UniProtKB/TrEMBL annotation:
Residues 56-98, 148-189, 241-281 form the Apple domain. It comes from the Eukaryota. Residues 1-23 form the signal peptide. This is Apple domain-containing protein. It comes from Staphylotrichum longicolle. Keywords: Signal. InterPro entries: Galactose-bd-like_sf, Pan_app. The lineage of its organism: Eukaryota, Fungi, Dikarya, Ascomycota, Pezizomycotina.
Length: 481
């Protein structure tokens, strides 16, 4: 902070003498705002030129303050200090170095010198990087917003030397979606809140961040559906209080964080949020109106759909499956989209041959294989499977060419926990010969579970005609001769 009023000349001289600083300007010093003598002129220092602005103050962005004897000495200190781009000088001998050009304001007690050096890098000085895109070393893209503060949603804070260091810290921090930088303070945020104008703040927002923050302010999200990062869908009821059924209560800085806490709690089906308190509930009581409560009711899980298969050279007939049992050396399954999961082959024990297991913690994985099928023909699928625990938010799904047609969870089939279980006969009709079967494992709420899979069999369709070997046909010709 620096002063907003003058000291009298006598008081200024006394203060400077007490500090051991002479009140008289150095010989040969030409730059001064006495009687606005140097106003709107350019002062040339060793490294850069400075615009002189008498009676103008760029409040904020202070790097430090020190005593000097002249305005020229103050400018020289800035010229030799990395990051300094302007100074505020009080004529009684104080010099504030600054690394930001904020909104200027009149202040008759301040003499300002602003660097004319060309701006480079990531900075909001003179709005240099405003509305530009910056990509951090890890590949995360950010939109820069100078003078904007998304207040709230803080996950951590630190001091950084530059705006770039602050944004890079967000890019390498899981869950960070934006930053607020007011040098040297860097605030990492986990939620997008409503933007506010703040000339002292430099913001950077991940391009993939939710630009429509979840809030019940002004009933913004009332009667809408919100999907969390775990693909769980909630119905939002602003003013809905699901009284009773409390299983736990936690603190959350945001409404979205409250929903994510429900995601992570097995059995949670709705929440009541009274900031910062988040009440997790496992009973769906009818809602009562409470204007101070933000409610959310769990609806469903949106299961990610595997990508469409690549083109395939069609065969005229069955057999359709090359590897039903994951035997070593004959595994034709392709692993893909593996997230927070580990896939390995194991001995199946009571089931013949080998099996595959997936250890998953809030992740998913896909095993895919091409099928030789005939368009329009009907086929049957059976699967042997086993779960290590009755985790209610873990699922096994089957897709044909990206279209879902079967799903199960140990919450529905507890007999699959700790013991092999065979699926019912599942039928599908081939819509194209370049068909792909994809088996997907997914856990959505941070639950760790081992899923085992074996003996995936697809049968049906027309039978390939038998072909005689060349040696047999040659033998027949010799007999005829």
């Amino acid at each position: 902070m620096h002063p907003t009023t003058h000291l009298t000349k006598g008081a200024a001289a006394a203060l400077l003498l007490a500090a051991g600083v002479s009140a008289a300007p150095s010989p040969g010093t030409a730059v001064t705002c006495e009687n606005n003598a140097s106003n709107n002129t350019v002062y040339t220092a060793q490294n850069a030129q400075f615009d002189i602005l008498c009676g103008i103050d760029y409040s904020g962005g202070d790097m430090g303050a020190e005593r000097v004897s002249t305005f020229a000495e103050c400018i020289t200190r800035c010229d030799s200090t990395p990051g300094c781009i302007n100074v505020a000088f009080a004529p009684w001998g104080m010099c504030w170095l600054k690394n930001q050009n904020t909104t200027p304001s009149p202040n008759s007690g301040v003499w300002t010198a602003k660097s004319k050096a060309a701006l480079t890098g990531l900075t909001c000085i003179d709005n240099f990087s405003d509305k530009k895109t910056y990509t951090s070393p890890g590949g995360t893209a950010f939109d820069i917003a100078c003078g904007v503060d998304y207040a709230g949603g803080d996950m951590s804070s630190r001091n950084t030397n530059t705006f770039k260091e602050c944004v890079d810290a967000c890019g390498s921090t899981p869950g960070c979606v934006n930053v607020a930088y007011s040098a040297p303070s860097c605030y990492l945020k986990s939620a997008m809140m409503a933007p506010r104008t703040n000339s002292h703040v430099w913001a950077a927002v991940r391009k993939d961040a939710d630009a429509d923050p979840l809030t019940c302010e002004n009933k913004k999200w009332d009667a809408r559906e919100f999907t969390t990062k775990d693909n769980r869908v909630y119905s939002i009821g602003c003013g809905d209080d699901y009284a009773g059924g409390d299983m736990a209560a936690v603190d959350s800085a945001t409404f979205q964080g409250c929903l994510e806490a429900c995601d992570a709690a097995s059995g949670c089906i709705n929440v009541a949020y009274v900031a910062p308190r988040c009440y997790l509930k496992n009973v769906a009581n009818p809602p009562a109106k409470g204007t101070h409560v933000w409610g959310a009711k769990f609806l469903r899980v949106n299961v990610p759909t595997p990508p469409a298969p690549t083109p395939y050279t069609c065969n005229p007939c069955s057999p359709v499956m090359l590897n039903p049992s994951f035997d070593d050396g004959t595994n034709s399954w392709t692993q893909r989209d593996v997230s927070n999961s580990v896939i390995s082959s194991i001995s199946a024990g009571s089931v013949s041959g080998s099996a595959v297991q997936v250890v998953s913690t809030r992740g998913y994985a896909v095993l895919a294989q091409k099928l030789s099928v005939v368009t329009g023909s009907t086929y049957s699928l059976t699967v042997d499977y086993m779960f290590s625990a009755a985790m209610t938010n873990c699922y096994l799904n089957a897709f044909i060419n990206g279209g879902w047609f079967w799903s199960f969870s140990p919450r529905y089939e507890p007999t699959s926990v700790g013991a092999w279980k065979k699926s019912p006969v599942l039928q599908f009709t081939a819509s194209a010969c370049d068909t792909e079967l994809a088996i997907q494992f997914v856990c959505t709420a941070g639950e760790s579970v081992t899923m085992k899979l074996d003996n995936i069999k697809v049968t049906g369709g027309p039978t390939c005609p038998a072909k005689a070997s060349r040696s047999l046909r040659g033998l027949e010709r010799r007999r005829l001769a």
